[in-house]
Amino acid sequence: ANERTLSIIKPDAVAKNVIGEIESRFEKAGLKIVAAKMLQLSQAQAEGFYAEHKERSFFGDLVGFMTSGPVIVQVLEGDNAIAANRDLMGATNPKEAEAGTIRADFAQSIDANAVHGSDSPESAEREIGYFFGSEEICAR
Ligand code: CMP
């Protein structure tokens, strides 16, 4: 089914200047970018986005990392976009990510892991709404 998912290109990948290489993988896989912006997240924005992890031991490091530099937040649309994006990203820990995935090719560590993608239709809906109003998402 046609779906939308929230994708973030994280500060490590922006700093490495591989935004275009990552976008190219989405495009080659048939996903369309229907909304996108570059943002420097505030601490409150990062904490709110990752609220489901607030009791986890890595929460402070995660928020610190996500506010360490600009990110690209974007909406990808396509057939099974949520799973398709997760296949392209590879495992959360780049050491476990399959060869040829974004994290295997561009990520350093479980924190600096290049990209984020929604993990379910419910989280996609919440995460897209967290960063975008409906008027910011384009039909194409
Ligand atoms: P992301 O998909 O953005 O969602 C939460 C992030 O927390 C995850 O990617 C990782 O970058 C980071 N993280 C750090 N440590 C862990 C861990 N032990 N388990 C899961 N995520 C972790």
TrEMBL record:
Catalytic activity as recorded in UniProt: a 2'-deoxyribonucleoside 5'-diphosphate + ATP = a 2'-deoxyribonucleoside 5'-triphosphate + ADP; a ribonucleoside 5'-diphosphate + ATP = a ribonucleoside 5'-triphosphate + ADP
Keyword rRNA-binding applies:
no
Q: Which GO terms describe its cellular component?
A: cytoplasm
Output the superkingdom of the source species.
Bacteria
E.C. number: 2.7.4.6
Q: What Pfam families does the database record attribute to this sequence? A: NDK
Q: What is the lineage of its organism?
A: Bacteria, Pseudomonadati, Pseudomonadota, Gammaproteobacteria, Oceanospirillales
Q: Which GO terms describe its biological process?
A: CTP biosynthetic process; GTP biosynthetic process; UTP biosynthetic process
Record keywords? ATP-binding, Cytoplasm, Kinase, Magnesium, Metal-binding, Nucleotide metabolism, Nucleotide-binding, Phosphoprotein, Transferase
Q: Where in the cell is it found?
A: Cytoplasm
> What are the protein's GO molecular function terms?
ATP binding; metal ion binding; nucleoside diphosphate kinase activity
Gene name of this polypeptide: ndk
Task: Identify the residues that the record assigns to the Nucleoside diphosphate kinase-like domain, covering every copy.
Answer: 2-139
- Sorted alphabetically, which InterPro entries does this protein's record hold? NDK-like_dom, NDK-like_dom_sf, Nucleoside_diP_kinase, Nucleoside_diP_kinase_AS
Q: Which spans are transmembrane here?
A: none
Q: Which residues form the active site?
A: 116 (pros-phosphohistidine intermediate)
Q: Where does ATP bind?
A: 10, 58, 86, 92, 103, 113
The similarity comment for this entry is: Belongs to the NDK family.
Primary enzyme class: transferase
Asked whether the UniProt record includes Metal-binding among its keywords, one would answer yes
What's the protein called, per UniProt?
A: Nucleoside diphosphate kinase
UniProt cofactor(s): Mg(2+)
